[in-house]
Fold this protein.
Amino acid sequence: MRDIRIHEVGLRDGLQMESEPVPTVTKEQWAAMLIDSGLDILQLGSFVNPAKVPQMADTDELFDYFKSNKKDRKTLLSCLVLNEKGLERAIKSDADMICMGVSASETHSKKNTGMSTEEALKRIIKMAIEVPNLGKPVQVSVQSAFGCGFEGEIPEEKVINIVSRYSDAGILNISLADTAGHAHPEQVKRLFSSILEINDKIKLACHFHNTYGLGITNVYTAIEYGATFIETAFGGLGGCPFTKLSAGNVCTEDFVHSLQRNNNRKDINLEKIIAVSKYASGFFVKELPGLVYKTGGLKY
Amino acid sequence: MRDIRIHEVGLRDGLQMESEPVPTVTKEQWAAMLIDSGLDILQLGSFVNPAKVPQMADTDELFDYFKSNKKDRKTLLSCLVLNEKGLERAIKSDADMICMGVSASETHSKKNTGMSTEEALKRIIKMAIEVPNLGKPVQVSVQSAFGCGFEGEIPEEKVINIVSRYSDAGILNISLADTAGHAHPEQVKRLFSSILEINDKIKLACHFHNTYGLGITNVYTAIEYGATFIETAFGGLGGCPFTKLSAGNVCTEDFVHSLQRNNNRKDINLEKIIAVSKYASGFFVKELPGLVYKTGGLKY
């Protein structure tokens, strides 16, 4: 099995879906525990309009909090930005990695950013090509790459075209996001294979939601077809506030547990991720979609 | 993708785990709806000691109820038996297909049947080879084939050895059951590949539980590595009362929905399965593990 890198997005994709705002100090605790677990990349939050997504209003503050131990930290701290203003804040916050993207669904793109896919793509590419000059990795994504709650089918050529444009611009860290959770394994095989045909130097990431029960199945298929960076959320939290019907992300500890069953990524401390999900379950006073934080991991 | 046949086991593996007994008339309704949906095989129940598993006490009655429309029915009605007495009842009930098995875990075998694996295997083979003489298909299984809640790891050679014994006896419908839900994809690949090396005429079935979140992922892997008959339960109900910690089966409607997303098994009426899960969720007054009965299926 190829080397798998885990990009924990629960503090962003997870918390933006919860109506109960999480105090900054609690986010700091959760982030510290996740960093401590040895996950590869941790998305601390997004730099977006606090009026639209109040749950993300303290992202600058969070980056500031983790500035002091930057040198000793193995985990990269990433963020999501939507526009130039967000990028400016991300740079000011000295985020280790900056993520941005466009939606392959026109409706989702309009609702999320007020722009068409083409408008957003031009803008994002312009922003993305600047980031490596600052010595930081950038990751670009195609949201709603496997279907859209509003539009239904998204033509695969449209996704491929966006990826080609990224690749032509020299941006090779590319994530396909199944924002609404419509993906199925055959579709994952087709899209990921096509992308590596465009440019086999592309470093593929994937981001699946479990709306219809295929989250982790699609992750395994994506790995088989070239994905290295897997975006997951502790407890299986998550969803997208700007699409129609989306369940949680693939659950980090469930996925890590499955890798460890096959002697992969034993360097990650599963118990520390489980502790965060238990904490979050208590905080939100509800059961989260993840399973392993409830069952405990298998010990053999 | 190979031809996939679905063996619905919710009325047996699902209901045996519920403390609330389901009245026979309700089971008849659920079974009729499941037959109507066009599923390939429906397990009506097991012929076991009603004192030990009271939820299955009416299995004879259920077979009797569905006797009248046997000729027009496309769906095969199967049952599970544990011993000679059960087999006798199954034959008397004129079940279309008879399932039986042994556990690869000594502890699970003892708890489930009071016999060691070897004792149970001899007995089951002796029983199974008689069934085709009655003009009925028989399916044999290896339970706890991927790990055991009591024993932990189950040596793969032990599973392979049981399968070889079945194969040597000419019994070729063989199901590997992940009773505790410990399986992971790499293990599924190894075991299924090894089995087809023993005898490529074996018709492989699989039965996965979702205890740690890998149920449907293991099904897709099993299909890729030769499985044709997939055992699932409506609503994702299920578990094994005689093992330690087992969550529900792979959910029938979630799995059928995933196949239909890829234009497979469009002949199955998804809505009719969803209706049973909604009914069962109402009956048990709880949310079931399945997702699609809550979200509805994608329509495009």
